Amino acid sequence: MADEQWSDADADALEHAERELERVFGDGRRPLAAMRQALDDMMISQGLPDDIAIAELTVGGIPALRVSAGVVDDTATVIWFHGGGYVMGSAHGYRGVAAAVSAAAGHPVVVPDYRRAPENPFPAALLDARTVMSWAAETFGDRWVLAGDSAGGGLTIAAMISARDEGAQLPAGAVLVSPLADFTASGDSFDVHDETDVAISRRSVRSLAAAYLGGHDPRDPLASPVFGTLDRLPPTFILASDREVLLDDAKALHHGMQRDGSPSSLAVYAGVCHAWTMFASTMPRARRAVAEIGDFVGQVLADRSPV
After folding, report:
1. Is 274 noted as a catalytic residue in this protein?
2. Radius of gyration over alpha carbons of the chain, in Å?
3. Which Pfam families match (predicted)?
């Protein structure tokens, strides 16, 4: 993406997105309840398309929203784990993201409200993710894609490692946007992009680790998948910004999958922020990323027969 022509619309959209992210996260010291509300408010303020359909459902006891945009093929689905550092984010806030992905993929998107820390620390979110995966396998066979952004991206790969190790059904493919996959915050990109990433820092990741892990080993691959063995996983599409601190998390996952024999592709976008697909309604490069996600979903589902 680095050679794509930069436009005024791209610049304006990035400025707007970063201003919104700064408003939500600030210096990372705001009360958690305030940040939770601010993140949902930011997401909701972007509006929803006219052709959206939203239904509440329960997935193995876990509340979720089913979101579709336009005419969709119900024989397959995308499961999207929301971001928010395992302590923020909600299905309600992510309706717009789900609608954009649904429109691009041509399938409904299910957004689970997995349990959040610190009220429900590790492995609560992972257990919920596994429950959702079991439901997807029972409902759609092998015609489903697992996806998520930020912490949701890390949860996606962690849940696949867990399912693989237990011999459970894996998705047809996976999508990781700006994945949070290393709670030790060891990547050089934490230093290189410290001045350009307004959403995340090494300090905030360590704060999230304290809330989510509650003293559990941050090098456990089910918490920090960069430390895991990444073999026997489905095709995975990883997206990251070239100016975010989690860039090395994305690269480490991509190279680890290639090293261990799992198919992986990495798209590094220039001139975008962390988890920029949140801004698909206003950011041209977010719409481009969502379109790429839709193409990937179509590719991995192409040879899977409906149940």
Report:
1. yes
2. 17
3. Abhydrolase_3
Q: Would residue 292 show up in a list of annotated catalytic residues for this protein?
A: no
Task: Return the closest-CA partner of residue 162 out of 170, 150, 151.
Answer: 170
Tokens standing for 158?
Answer: 């962690």
Query: Does residue 3 lie in a domain region?
Result: no
The pLDDT value recorded for residue 303 is 79
Q: What is the mean pLDDT of residues 101-124?
A: 98
Catalytic residue among 90, 262, 274, 292: 274
pLDDT of residue 3: 43
- What 3-state DSSP class applies to 59? strand
Residue 306 lies in a domain: no
Name every residue whose Cβ is closer than 8 Å to that of residue 197 and which is 6 or more positions away in sequence.
243, 244, 245, 246, 273, 274
Residue 10's region, left for phi above 0, alpha for psi from -120 to 50, else beta, is alpha
Catalytically annotated residue among 150, 162, 201, 264? 150
Mean pLDDT of 299-306: 86
Torsions phi, psi for 109 (to 5 deg): -120, 130
Domain count of the fold of the chain: 1
pLDDT at 198 over 70: yes
For residue 281, indicate whether it is catalytic. Answer: no
Output the pTM of the full model: 0.96
Reported confidence tier of residue 28, pLDDT bands at 50, 70, 90: low
Residue 2 lies in a domain: no
Cβ atoms of 304 and 296 within 8 Å: the answer is no
Burial class, 229, CB count within 10 angstroms (exposed 0-12 / middle 13-18 / buried 19+): middle
Structural domain boundaries enclosing 155: 8-301
CATH number at 199 reads 3.40.50.1820
Residue 267 within a domain? yes
pLDDT beyond 70 at 307: no
Q: Identify the active-site residue in 244, 262, 264, 292.
A: 244
Nearest to 172 by CA among 144, 212, 134, 200: 144
